[in-house]
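can u do me a favor
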């Protein structure tokens, strides 16, 4: 979605007998239809997704630079749960449900710094590793099980400085969900571990989160709807999106980079002239523009027809940058704005009694004008709803 113009990558289909044993043509493949409207409008399906998708997958929580020092914390909401991340004394980033183990008051709000976590209700006090340390008069209770009381932790990984959490206590590590992505990102953005957020653009969208994610995950709509990118840097005929575990990897060759609006030192590293993107199912994407410029997408579903997208932009050490600021503004005014109108129109259409889900355009040769990435996404969506 973030790119560019299109020209069809060809699939070779002929009708003569000699092609009978060739690779399957589109005609040989069963038609795969898009998901029914209810997947994007039904409160029941949204509830099933909370359990089957959002509570079982790796979700972005924040950036490690928000937790510079031991004791730093920030609270957030995700999948209907209130959580908080903190940095422990040993430097480890930990995440807990934001609920006291006494009588369930919330523990922290916003962000801040604390050497211990003190509940505002009756001041039970927890160490930064979640262990209960003290509480007024608890010694009066015979055999008070203090050593057994601990805040409920949440699986947490720091992925090149980006904190991800998973409400499934048995979650497989991110490297299993998204094979190769950590290494590829490190190569495409050599300074990634020194980055801090500098621009954080909030985009409310009146649509189901999956509509927005599907729109991000195909470029079949790009030539018609993204004129800025249509004259941009990628070679659309080389654009492709392929599953890589539960990652959808966008790749493309770039045009001549002379027309870029910012300077790029192509000799500085192997991927300095590259564009690529790694969408991590279900709600986050790392995107790299030429010049090793990292930017991110983060979706948060609020209800069946309501989500927010955040665009994140980063610089080394969080240094102010006119270049990055201008890119963020241009992105918001062009691609993002264009996509808002698309996804909100689709959402209205999905509620129409007149909508019959159409066949996905699946080109065996893949390429920019094929929706094979949507097929993968919709399969994961179906699996998640069934699991919920
Ligand atoms: S609810 Fe937290 S101390 Fe009572
Ligand atoms: Fe788009």
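np, heres the sequence
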């Amino acid at each position: 979605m973030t790119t560019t113009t299109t020209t069809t990558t060809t699939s070779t289909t002929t009708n003569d007998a000699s092609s009978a044993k060739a690779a399957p043509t589109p005609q040989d493949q069963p038609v795969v239809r898009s998901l029914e409207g209810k997947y994007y409008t039904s409160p029941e399906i949204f509830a099933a997704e909370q359990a089957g998708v959002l509570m079982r997958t790796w979700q972005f929580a924040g950036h490690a630079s928000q937790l510079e020092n031991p004791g730093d914390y920030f609270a957030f909401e995700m999948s209907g749960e209130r959580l908080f991340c903190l940095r422990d004394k040993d430097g480890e980033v930990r995440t807990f449900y934001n609920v006291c183990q006494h009588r369930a008051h919330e523990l922290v709000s916003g962000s801040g710094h604390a050497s211990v976590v003190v509940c505002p209700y009756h001041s039970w006090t927890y160490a930064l590793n979640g262990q209960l340390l003290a509480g007024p008069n608890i010694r009066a209770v015979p055999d008070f099980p203090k050593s057994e009381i601990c805040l409920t932790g949440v699986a947490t990984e720091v992925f090149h400085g980006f904190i991800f959490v998973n409400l499934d206590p048995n979650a497989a590590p991110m490297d299993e969900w998204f094979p190769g992505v950590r290494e590829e990102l490190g190569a495409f953005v050599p300074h990634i571990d020194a980055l801090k957020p500098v621009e954080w653009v909030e985009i409310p969208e009146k649509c189901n989160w999956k509509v927005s994610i599907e729109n991000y995950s195909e470029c079949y709509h790009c030539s018609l709807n993204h004129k800025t990118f249509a004259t941009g840097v990628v070679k659309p005929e080389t654009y492709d999106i392929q599953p890589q575990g539960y990652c959808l990897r966008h790749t493309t060759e770039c045009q001549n980079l002379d027309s870029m609006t910012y300077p790029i030192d192509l000799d500085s590293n192997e991927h300095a002239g590259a564009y690529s993107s790694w969408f991590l199912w279900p709600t986050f994407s790392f995107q790299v523009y030429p010049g090793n410029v990292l930017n991110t997408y983060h979706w948060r579903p609020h209800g069946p027809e309501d989500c927010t997208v955040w665009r994140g932009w980063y610089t080394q050490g969080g240094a102010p940058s006119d270049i990055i600021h201008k890119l963020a503004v241009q992105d918001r005014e062009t691609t993002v704005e264009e996509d808002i109108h698309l996804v909100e129109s689709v959402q209205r259409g999905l509620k129409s009694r007149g909508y019959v889900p159409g066949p996905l355009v699946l080109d065996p040769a893949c390429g920019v004008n094929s929706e094979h990435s949507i097929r993968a996404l919709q399969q994961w969506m179906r699996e998640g709803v069934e699991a919920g």
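The domain at 35-54+175-387 is CATH 3.90.380.10 (Naphthalene 1,2-dioxygenase Alpha Subunit; Chain A, domain 1). hope that helps!!
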